[in-house]
């Protein structure tokens, strides 16, 4: 398939596919007239890259997953380097959740401080 079909089937743009190629993640063959030609395996790789980007990975983070697929594994997640990357991303997410929870508590406390009803004063006769 040509780059336009690959991009359409992968849900991305031809520009993005060329960008992945520049970073060595996608490897097209070349036809006699010099057009990029992609097979189903490259389509799977582009789809995996897109899925990783949606999860917050960057292109450098995608490299072990692409390597895993290129070595013949059915899933890009099953190689040790991929699992290590997944764990690192999970740690990063957990840290972000902790930071955001701390910020949330601080903001909530500030809101509560200015919206709490004033204390009642009780007078005894």
UniProtKB/TrEMBL annotation:
All copies of the HTH merR-type domain together span 1-68
One GO MF term: DNA binding
In terms of superkingdom, the source organism counts as Bacteria
Origin organism of this chain?
Nocardia stercoris
List the keywords (alphabetical): DNA-binding, Transcription, Transcription regulation
> SUPFAM superfamilies, per this entry?
Putative DNA-binding domain (SSF46955)
This protein's name: MerR family transcriptional regulator
Q: Which InterPro entries match?
A: DNA-bd_dom_put_sf, MerR-type_HTH_dom, MerR_fam
